[in-house]
Amino acid sequence: MGFSEILTAIITISVLIIIHEFGHYICAVSTGMKVDRFSILGIGPVVARLFTYKGTEFVISAIPFGAYVHIVGMEAEDEAELARRPPSPDDKFLFRNRPLWARMLTIVGGPVANYITASLIIFSVLAVAGNRDVRSMAVDAVQAETAIAAGLTKGDELLSIAGADVTGEESYNKITATTGAHKGETVPVLVRREGAEVSLEVPISDAGLMGVGLVEGEVVHRPASLGHSAKMAVLQPFVLTQKQLKGLYYLITRKIDAKVSGPVGIVREIAKSAEKGVIELFLFAAGISTLLGLFNLLPLPALDGGRLVFLVYELIARRPANRRIEEMIHGIGMLALLGLILYVTVANDIFG
Q: Nearest CA to 320 among 27, 81, 75, 96?
């Protein structure tokens, strides 16, 4: 993995985060809110002011992690500052004073921008490079002790499980369906390893898993019509989300033994896809874009989904939640999130 691949990966994840924040920005200004700052790179103190456009100052910040938009009247410190001055005609532009639908749209604007980006990437790849038919899946990482003991190794291409062919169209779905039908059993698994076929006896967990991570094996390219490209561009991000939610569920319920990656790990995986070529990089970026959108929609404090929870409460209760309590919860959530990211980065990405 060379410097150019790592640089490409950093630029890729940075662009996806900027797109996320641009989603918030465009929804905010289009619904009459005032955005006074858009840090297109980094958080914390401003180190470089780029330009000002329609009242929004575009800047670069000191800590080169992520990006942000500052929507006036959204944070608790804005409320304290506004309370010290007389009412102004500009107050109608404040986040808190805009209609509920406008505030909800602004919050979901970031994740929606990521899903739209993923759709555009998928459409472009299919329209230009054609359809990629995944004909088989291969082992990328052996995670469970049972899989290690059974003899599965990285690079093994899965051919059949319990006598059922798992290659060809929808190979991944064939694998999950077959393992799901043999929960708690030990079944014969035929793999192709370095050109030779190898038969193994592999235990399937009670959750229907073999304990391995999978990547695409044999891939066949064929032309794709614009209609097919458009259809897949709409459907594929939601298919990816379904897989991501399923993986998250298995991780939380400890049905799989896997490590969570932080920013360093994500950059490393993007760099690996960049080594495989432009098409692989773009498709992986589409997956990361959907993951970024999904992650931010989770109903957790400090995330877009957490803020959306309070707006839904306002919709039901017909009154806003206590702003101080809301901001305190988001503040604690942000500290917890940063702490988790730091721990995962050090424990799993660097020393894992």
A: 96
Could you give phi then psi for residue 42, rounded to 5 degrees? Answer: 95, 170
Q: Whole-angstrom Cα distance, residue 290 to residue 99?
A: 28
SS3 of residue 246 by DSSP: helix
Q: Where do we find the tokens 């495989």? A: 276
pLDDT at 200 over 60: yes
CATH no. for 132-222: 2.30.42.10
Quick one: how far is CA 91 from the chain centroid?
Answer: 35
Q: What angle do CA 174, 176, 177 make, to 5 degrees?
A: 65
Distance between CA 102 and CA 154 in Å, rounded? 49
The stretch 153-178 carries a mean pLDDT of 91
For the chain, which residues make up each domain, given as ranges?
103-130+224-352, 132-222
pTM of the model: 0.79
Q: How far is CA 63 from CA 161, 302, 334, in A?
A: 49, 18, 16
Reported as a single tens digit per residue, the pLDDT across 296-325 is 999 999 899 999 999 999 999 999 888 888
Query: What are the tokens at 192?
Result: 């192709």
Q: How far is CA 274 from the centre of its chain?
A: 18
Spatial separation of the C-alpha atoms in residues 190 and 66, rounded to whole Å: 44
